Amino acid sequence: MKRRSFLAGALGGTAGLALTACGNGEAVDGDGDGPGDSAGGPVEITYWLWQDDATDSTWTDLAESFNSAQSDVKVTLETIPLDQYQNKITTAAMNNTGPDAARCKDWWIGQFAPAGATADLTPFVDGWEARDDVVEGLWKTGRLPGEESIYMLPHQYTTLYMYYRKDYFAEVGLEAPKTQDEFLAAAEALTGTDRYGFDVRGGGGGQDQWLAWMYAGGANLVDDAGEIVLNDATGVEVNEKYLSIVTDLEAAPPGSITAAFADVKTNFASGLTAMMIHHPGSLAEMTEVYGDDLGVIPIPGTGSGPSRTLGAMSGNIIMAQSEKQEAAWKWISWLSETEQMATMSTSPQGQLPVLSSVMEMDEFTSDPNLKVAVDAIPDAVTWPGLPGVATLAGKEWNPTIQQGFQGELTSQEVVDKMAAVLASDA
Amino acid sequence: MRKRKLTPKQVLGHVTRYAALLLILVAILGPYIVMAVTSLTPKAELAAAGASLIPSALTLDAYFELVTTTPFLNYLGNSLHVALMAVPLTLVCATGAAIALSRFEFLGRRQIMTALILAQMLPAVLLVLSLQGQLNVMGLLDNKFGLALVHAAFATPFATWLLKGFLDGIPRELEESGSIDGASTWQIIRLLLMPLLLPGMVAAGTYAFILTWNEFLYALTFTASPATRTLPVGLQLFIGEYQIRWDLLTAGGVLSVLPVVAGFLLVQRRLVAGLAAGAVKG
Amino acid sequence: MLAGKQPTRARKKMGRRGYEPYVLLAPAIILILVFAGYPLVRSIWMAFNKVSAFTGEMAFVGFDNFVAITQAPDFWGNLGRTGMWVGGAVSLQLLGGLVLALLINTKFPLRGVYRGLVMVPWATPSVLVALMWKWLLDPNNGIISKALRGVGLADRPVEFLSDPAMALPTLIVIDAWQGIPLFTVMILAALQGVSEDHKEAAATDGCGPVGVFRHVVLPAIIPTILITVLLRIIWTANYVDLIFILTGGGPGVSSTTLALQSYLTAYKATNFGQGAAYSVLQAAILVIFVVMYLRLTARNEAQR
Fold first, then answer.
1. Record's superkingdom (chain C) (predicted)?
2. What's the predicted TM-score (pTM) here?
3. Which of A94, A404, C21, C211 is the most exposed place for a label (fewest CB within 10 A)?
């Protein structure tokens, strides 16, 4: 669906935005608008992004709308495969060949921002009229712990929940689990000949579902004071339960300790597993496969208080090296306006919106399964913006948790090792 | 060929040989057949339950979608374009260097031979960081010629050593008689050595071609727009955050291999022609 | 008895003290110096510096990075696995390539087509090779695991890539599968330099097939084999794509090599100094093979 008519009006708000500071001390020529200015043409900026499906045209359509609706800024999209995205941003920043603006995951911020790679967006955000429409709690995904500066503009959000097979549960006469102990009992009961309870996803990207489990069970990475508490008693216990799915219950399918999401999804879709932790991104596909046999519940937790889970943000950053930050802001703030966000969030690549005005739309309130994810937003916790987070997620989490699953490390050793990585500053 | 009666031992030898050839072909092509079948499997079937060897129906949808809705043909063209620059570059550099190293004695010869090997000692993932800044300064970023230069630079050392090996195996009487006849060094190289070197050049050229055809990291880092992006990077884009477009990936894989195999079929005769002509028998 | 081998004077004959060799070498030297030499030297320098990610600023730290990586708990294990990975993969490739080259150097119907088809794995981008095998080897849905269970060779799904004892050997076999064609083509090309007359002469002198191979064929193809093996050792040591996509070095660290560790340290932990140190250290070890190779070829040349 294309929405173009609204553009002229929607842009009025940002066009008149007055900027007093760019906040980064980099050379900004004259009016900050770069070479395009003298010729009177639009300022040309580049924007890097990854896409879930490179054939989907949502992003290119949005860029076209943006370019045709105003003549100040012309954006060029460059799609980079997600597996190499972080590498390419790093290499480009070191050689000053990066884009003006880029898509960014919340767990990279702790690495990018303290190193001075991303521009401080606070002055831009302060003058942005849609500011108060953003769900207040989500601004923290673009901040560093204990700081007020905003480095990433929230854009697409998601919360993790659990899919389960109602028919499999009925077969063994169980209700959907509410606590982690019920979950473990169910996982064991559901495991039989060529059927398994749950994929632990020890491979690529598995840290997200693990952290969702940890949060749900009451564990934390850092406390309110910024101290690392992953390896406290709760952390050890909740992690122990996760490891026990493999070590004690043998309720995970073969290959699970190195499985990435593609394997996890295939296993669930083919009926090999009974439960799967993921976000609404796979809801449409799973509904198509299972129809009414598909159930969605919050991730089992402690059984008391609101259920917690992991929230994951894909936002937008402006590179500190860019000499066209004002133009870059125009593009990324336009993406975060009501209509464009609705377009993105309802597209095949979309996740949950971050604007209250969009969240109230029918699409996000009428589906009871989707509502589980939307309802989780207020109590969802994100990766903290620590430098060690990217190292943990990209390098250390996989071998450490896999050694836990193999019984080479105890739960205590696993969380100790991870806590040490989080505490390191690189 | 003369017809001869085969002894039982020879028959056994033939049978073993053909059995081995068949077995090897299956081992080599087996995974590839699975890939080709996958590319013909309906998308819905792949999404629901992964791949199966026997799809319920065969369809060319993936190929159609690949060609019409993605810049795949662009990528293919770019890859060819880069290869058409990188391969001749490699061959010119490597042939010259190989002749110098095999046929001449000069100051620094052994050092250069060693340096050629040492140039390859570090992984590309590390080199790419410095190389990107360098290309940027040279204005060769997001530029097919720049990428071809890099590919040629990394293909040249092995190609040089390879060709030097071939040259070392070619006896030198011919050149000596040539020089007695009063031919210049350049004439001897052009008229006598080059034809003899052809099988080696086909092997080295094949190597250079495949290197540039498959090279991913430099292509990813040094190019950005669809106008310069090559095939391996284009294929990688079908691996998304939460899904892998197996249909497009495998269809693209099939299409990307075909030109290489076709090209090799054309040149492989040259590979085995060479010295058989008998010109240089001792 | 074997004609055609000339003393080294032949080399000197063609251009003693001439300018020609420098002209011939110039393009290669310039190209390599500019596009491989500079990044090489800078990367080595990085190993002795603390490199700030994103700004690229460097501060000299001497051997600190090397000390840090050799004291990392998995260092020696990674080193040993790198040795297995390189040794296993290259020897399989050499053996397979030699056998296949000898086979397809004989005459048989459709030989040309066969030679073309044999190239396929080599002509396939690594990412596709990796994903294809991941799919085939999947313990639950992959056809290899299913086939093994079907014929009764396995009683449960085979975890090729998630069993710590099998992950590295499996990777080695896949790498060999991908790398055999290169050896085949190179050896096949070298085999064309073997004179039929020499073979026949050796056979009439009473050499059996093995004798002919040892005394006539092998000497002719050995230069090609040696340089291919040497460079393949270096490339395989530095090759991370397959491991990264298929196992990520796991399960645990059971398939982690130095090169993978270098990549992860540099990019995922943005510690480019230590990342470079892993690679430089590995290069220093690989120099042993280079020296061995140069010794061997020097002897070969002297014999000529």
1. Bacteria
2. 0.90
3. C211
